[in-house]
Amino acid sequence: MKAAWYERQGAARDVLTVGEMEDPQPHPGEVRIRVSASGINPGDVKKRQDAFGYGMPYPRVIPHSDGSGVVDAVGEGGSSDWIGKRVWCYGAQTYRPFGTSAEYTVVPVEQAVPLPESVSFEQGACLGIPGITAHRAVHVAGPIAGKTVLVQGGAGAVGAIAVQLAHRAGARVIATCRFESDKNIAQRAGADVVVLRDERLVERIRDLAPDGVDHIVEVAFAANITSDVDVLAQGGSLATYASDTFTPQIPFWPLIFSNARLFFVGSDDVPKEAKRDAVRAINQALEAGWQGLDITSRFGLEDIAQAHEAVEHPTEPGRVVVTL
Fold first, then answer.
1. Edge-to-edge, what's the strand order for the sheet holding 232-240?
2. pLDDT tens sequence for the chain (324 residues)
3. Could you tell me the residue ranges of all domains in the chain?
4. Alpha helices, DSSP H only, in the chain?
5. Is the dihedral of CA 179, 130, 322, 62 positive or negative?
6. Which of 15, 57, 121, 124 is least buried, going by the fewest C-beta atoms within 10 A?
7. What one-character DSSP code corresponds to residue 252?
8. What CA–CA distance (Å, rounded) separates 209 from 205?
9. May I ask the CATH architecture of the domain 130-268?
10. The domain at 2-127+293-323 falls in which architecture?
């Protein structure tokens, strides 16, 4: 098969190689997917860069955890009903060496999710990590029906899915965006109100939620924690999945006085039952007419280095996919 891989970490153009490898074979409990599209997440880029200092987990890595395609083989003892099914997958390169930037990928059968017929393969390749992260961040603190949820960064991939899932779960959703041009993304995802992140942010949110917001989904923990505390309701909760600095400081006593609950969400290690809930909720949203995420750039496998650079230095909001 044709695949892209790296055997050392570094800049995309320095380490990514495109070439031929043997076709992978599924083991018991696995399925093989003929990949149509491979989604690139910031985490895929950070792994390749060694941004967190963990080094090379395997001698060779085929990057990208998310993808979509058609199942063409099952492991011994697996159901032949999977053969020919359109699927999206997640976790292909989570604690495994070979992800979706190849003509074939192999995943545990529970990580292959039927893709609704109305949804494109490119859209399917965008759902995994952002969707599981968003669902967990929205629901980790408990039921949100009838509550006010603030989604920081509602135009991002995780943020937009969080807006949609919170909306579908019966919450009143306030989303924030950095730019006026991004408001439409959060609105289309289902936000009741979208506000700009500027010097009047706290004032605007307090006007919208005088008693405070019940739950916050946070994309930039270090940058936003102070304003988050200012708008959080007594006994409220905050779930964060990213931070703009590696070791953020927190306003400890204000958090104590508000009896806040903090949750830290890493999609790779979300409990299995929560992942099952997430993929079910995502497919239900798609089947109900949600259009999914905006796709801003498409690259062929041979241009994977440019695709990674597009994720590192985005010029507009939207997802980057590699098509095969």
1. 193-196, 172-177, 148-151, 213-218, 232-240, 261-264
2. 999 999 999 999 999 999 999 999 999 999 999 999 999 999 999 999 999 899 999 999 999 999 999 999 999 999 999 999 999 999 999 999 999 999 999 999 999 999 999 999 999 999 999 999 999 999 999 999 999 999 999 999 999 999 999 999 999 999 999 999 999 999 999 999 999 999 999 999 999 999 999 999 999 999 999 999 999 999 999 999 999 999 999 999 999 999 999 999 998 999 999 999 999 999 999 999 999 999 999 999 999 999 999 999 998 889 999 999
3. 2-127+293-323, 130-268
4. 12-15, 42-49, 121-124, 128-139, 157-168, 183-189, 201-208, 221-231, 252-257, 272-287, 304-312
5. positive
6. 57
7. H
8. 6
9. Alpha-Beta Complex (3.90)
10. Alpha-Beta Complex (3.90)
What's the CA gap between 202 and 206, in Å, rounded?
6
Residue whose entry in the numeric block shows the structure tokens 């307090």:
206
Task: Tell me if 2-127+293-323 shares its fold with 130-268.
Answer: yes
